[in-house]
């Protein structure tokens, strides 16, 4: 009987350890364009146009909002994270294809992780204009001022 209890306790501990270890695994993720280096290297300024780029690389991840979408962006990012932490970029590829007004490729640019911005919010609060009021000032601050106009405390229909 004691051996059976020890056996079940061992399985319970093993199951709990397995569940806890599952929360510590690394999570890999890929977002954006699926990169094929052979195809990306074939796009050339002065040779290709919008149609040939679309046939070679497919639709872009993003198009520029101005100039009629004359810039196309292909973005791919691989991230990793541990359990509940924030994802961290491991690799990134940003390919920019610029077109002229006739639709011909004028330039092709590539960049990587150097374009990833690292920001750190200050203090977890958004600065706002106005007064700093406590919870109770916010809660009771309008008592006596609701319906009052001016300094007299009367209403517009019934001045004092």
Overview of this protein structure:
With 160 residues, this protein is an alpha+beta fold. It has a domain at 24-115. It is built from four helices and five strands, in the order αβααββββα. The chain has helices at residues 2-22, 37-40, 50-57, 135-140, and strands spanning 26-32, 62-63, 71-82, 88-99, 105-111. Strands 1, 2, 3, 4 and 5 form a five-stranded antiparallel sheet that branches. A hairpin with a 5-residue loop joins β4 (88-99) and β5 (105-111). The longest helix is centred in the N-terminal third of the chain and has 21 residues, at 2-22. It is elongated and about 75 Å long.
Radius of gyration: 30 Å
- Order of helical and strand elements: HEHHEEEEH
In total, the number of strands is 5
Shape: elongated
Q: Identify the quaternary structure here.
A: single chain
What is the end-to-end distance?
A: 90 Å
- The number of helical runs is 4
Q: How many strands, what sense, and barrel or not for the largest sheet?
A: 5 strands, antiparallel
Low-confidence runs of at least 5 consecutive residues: none
Which class best fits the helix and strand makeup?
alpha+beta
Mean pLDDT: 79
Helical fraction: 10-25%
Strand content: 25-35%
Keywords: Membrane, Signal
Pfam family, one: BamE
Domain Outer membrane protein assembly factor BamE: 32-108
Protein name: Outer membrane protein assembly factor BamE
């Amino acid at each position: 009987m004691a051996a059976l209890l020890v056996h079940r306790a061992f399985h319970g501990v093993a199951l709990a350890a397995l569940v806890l270890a599952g929360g510590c695994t690394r999570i890999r993720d890929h977002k954006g364009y699926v990169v094929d280096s052979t195809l990306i290297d074939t796009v050339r300024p002065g040779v290709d146009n919008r149609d040939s780029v679309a046939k070679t690389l497919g639709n872009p991840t993003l198009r520029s909002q101005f100039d009629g979408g004359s810039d196309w962006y292909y973005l791919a990012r691989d991230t990793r994270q541990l359990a509940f932490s924030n994802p961290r970029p491991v690799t990134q590829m940003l390919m920019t294809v610029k077109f002229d007004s006739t639709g011909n490729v004028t330039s092709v640019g590539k960049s990587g992780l150097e374009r990833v911005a690292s920001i750190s919010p200050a203090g977890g609060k958004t600065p706002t204009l106005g007064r700093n009021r406590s919870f109770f000032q916010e809660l009771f601050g309008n008592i006596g001022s609701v319906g009052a106009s001016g300094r007299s405390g009367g209403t517009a229909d019934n001045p004092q």
